[in-house]
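Review form for a predicted model. The reviewer records the input and the model, then writes brief findings.
Reviewer: anonymous (R2)
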Amino acid sequence: MAAEAHLPVASIDRTELLDALLTSVFVLDLRLNVAYLNAAAQTLLGLGPNQAIGRPIGELIRGAQSLLPLFERVLAGGEGVVQRELAWHGPLGLERILDCVVTAVLLGADSRLLLEVEDITQHRRLTRETALLAQLDGSRLMVRQLAHEIKNPLGGLRGAAQLLERELLDPSLREYTRVIISEADRLTGLLDSMLGPGRPPAKQRTNIHEMLERVYRLLQGEAAPGIVVERDYDPSLPPLTVDPNHIIQAMLNLGRNALQALSAGAPDGARLILRTRAATNVNVGSKRHRLVASIQFEDNGPGVAPEIRETIFYPLVSGRDGGTGLGLGIAQELVSRHGGLIEFDSEPGRTVFTISLPMDPV
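Model under review:
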């Protein structure tokens, strides 16, 4: 037993050590063909060693072309180099974000390139979720304070205009006071929208697809000619305990934003897809859920402008001329009241807004 407790390092199989790593490890020859890959690399690619060994790394990791300058620098005698946040479409079309390190190694008499790949997709998602939740808390506090500060003088302004209207004998002058009153009412309504619903959610067991069908019919009626609204549902999703009015409003806000984006700059074949899926072991903020309902609104419009991506859920931030910038902020607030979160991925030709709602344990 004592001998087993002090097992000599030399007697440990190196491949067993590499297979125990969570980091994906590739050994490449000087032609950039795969000579070895560990268990984590096989999982990353969804391929076994017989399918991967001998093939160029560029065939296995689409996007690896951006690594070619790194390989060249290392082959020219440079030290190890790093490529951060390489976007990669993994098996089954899953979007992955990878950190890559390339170094030169000498195995026996042969020179090889060592490629280490770390999948940081989950870490990046957690960081982004944390930032979104902090953004939501900050904007909620700011909006409430600002709204209360503005609503009080608006009420006084409206009351003064009403008193003035009673004193005016000339009907043409009363038109001016009516403008003041109507504009005060409009601004009060805008502030109420920014504050969000005043009552807590009236939760009940609801079929997610019944709510989506209402949204689908409304969006179909509002879609401009040439825009197709499609459905892609997972019928196995169980009912959710939510406030139907709140969730329908959040979904409508996302769907209408997508239709406006498609109307503004969509190519021929513009479409909006309403999709539902179940996701397992998902973190929403700091809480991990065994099962989450994923409700997606995907469009093939021009995408979210880069300058507003970090602040898109803030009130009054809009990428559209004439937009109030309240729709997404209100939707995020409504979903957050159910323990959920709205996230998005966007590039020209494909934008996906995803509502994640925790499911009740069965």
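Findings: The first strand starts at residue 24 and ends at 28.
Further findings: The chain has three domains: 2-119, 125-195, 204-358.
Recommendation: see findings above.
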